[in-house]
Amino acid sequence: MNRIIPGILLALFWLLLLIKGSFQLFWIVVLAIGFIGAREYCRMVFSDMLYESDRVLLPILLIVPIIAAVFTSAYPQTAAFGMMLGLICLAVYVFNQYSRYENPATVVSRGVLGLVYVGFFLAHLVLIRGLEDGGHWLIILMGITAGSDTGAYWVGCRWGKHKLCPNISPNKTVEGAAGGMLGGLVGAVVLSLIFSVKASVLMIIPLALTLSIVGMTGDLVESVLKRGFGVKDSGTLLGGHGGVLDRIDSLLLAAPCLYYILIYAGF
Questions:
Q1: Which of 130, 204, 221, 243 is surrounded by the fewest CB atoms within 10 Å?
Q2: Residue ranges of domains in the chain
Q3: What is the DSSP letter of 236?
Q4: What is the dihedral of CA 141, 143, 145, 149, to 10 degrees?
Q5: Under 8 Å CB-to-CB from 170, ≥6 apart: which residues?
Q6: Does the structure show a pLDDT above 80 at 92?
Q7: Does residue 185 have a pLDDT over 90?
Q8: Alpha-carbon distances, residue 57 vs 42, 43, 182, 227, 250 (angstroms)
Q9: 46: Cβ–Cβ under 8 A, 6 or more apart, which residues?
Q10: Helical residues (DSSP H) of the chain, grouped into ranges
Q11: How far apart are CA 169 and CA 150, in angstroms?
Q12: Are 74 and 92 in contact (CB under 8 A)?
């Protein structure tokens, strides 16, 4: 129950934001999510290396691509520009704090990973929102990731026997992954019939299957990070759901994938 109720409330909030909220409000919400996620990332990968001021400054540097994405309607390349600007700011930070760290290269490499993983990837939610029918596409994306998570959980619990990646996530099974693809497909088709987009069902089906696989890959990527740095959850903000990164790990890879598919497909 401690997982179901927060999950339903988060889904309702997301749906209401996409239906009723403006582009600017959506950007502010994604910016807040990015900042919290960046703080969780910094706590994971830098552990006891941070001063109190770093806990605010570093997350801000990691979400520069999201900050820049507010201008996407006029300049579609803003997230890439934000990525470059964030990298420069990160470099200046390391130059200034060089003597503090035993191995400054570690700070650079982990910082760049966070800049890409949190800031740049998450900025694609804003980029999608700026497209025509962007809000509807994000609702469909929500249906894919939520349907995939639900399908994978229920099928895996009931019929899961063959481990998918036992060294990374022991509870995930091949059967669960198949259930996740089916759940993502159902979620995408149902929501595409309710929230119309300029795409036929014949396009929605392969898109949903692709994004379900990408989303599950995103889940495994975060599991690799958590195992690598010895943490169970990225945070505790969402109770039984863990931290913000634990909730959006699928979106972090699926959103860029959807954005570039839509761009190159002419949407």
A1: 221
A2: 4-264
A3: S
A4: 180
A5: 163
A6: yes
A7: yes
A8: 11, 13, 42, 25, 26
A9: 54, 58, 107, 110
A10: 4-20, 23-46, 54-62, 64-68, 78-96, 104-114, 121-129, 134-159, 174-194, 201-228, 244-264
A11: 17
A12: no
